[in-house]
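Format notes (please read before filing issues)

Several people have asked whether sequences and C-alpha cells are stored in separate files. They are not. Every record keeps both together, in the order shown below: the sequence lines, then the C-alpha cell lines. Line labels are part of the format and must not be stripped during preprocessing.
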Amino acid sequence: MSPFFQPTSQGYLLRLTVAPGAQRTQVVGLYGDRLKVRLAAPPEKGAANRELINFLARSLNLPKSSLKLTLGAQSRSKVVAVYDLSPDLGQRLGRLVPPSQEIA
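Then the structure lines:
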C-alpha cells in the first residue's frame, strides 16, 4: 500500500477521503491509498473544506496559509498541497495515521 502523501519540490501532496457531517473531526485511518478524515462540518458552502484545512493545520502545526485544497472542492476525494519544506514534515504526516494502521 502506498502512503497517502507524496513529496513535491515545494512540500507534499496529500490524498484524502473526507466524510462531512460527523460529530467530531478526526482521522479514521487509511482508505486504500488515501487518508480518511471525518469532518464536524456540513458539506455546504465550503464549510467542510475549511474545517479540513483548519484540522490539518492544527494537526501538522502549520499555518493555514501553508495548505491549499488543489483538487476535489465538491468531492469526498480531495488533494491538499502542503507548502512546507521542514525536514520532519514527513514524520508529522505519518503520525496522522492511527497507531493500529501505521505505514511501514
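For reference, the curators noted about this record: The chain has a mean pLDDT of 93. The first strand starts at residue 5 and ends at 7.
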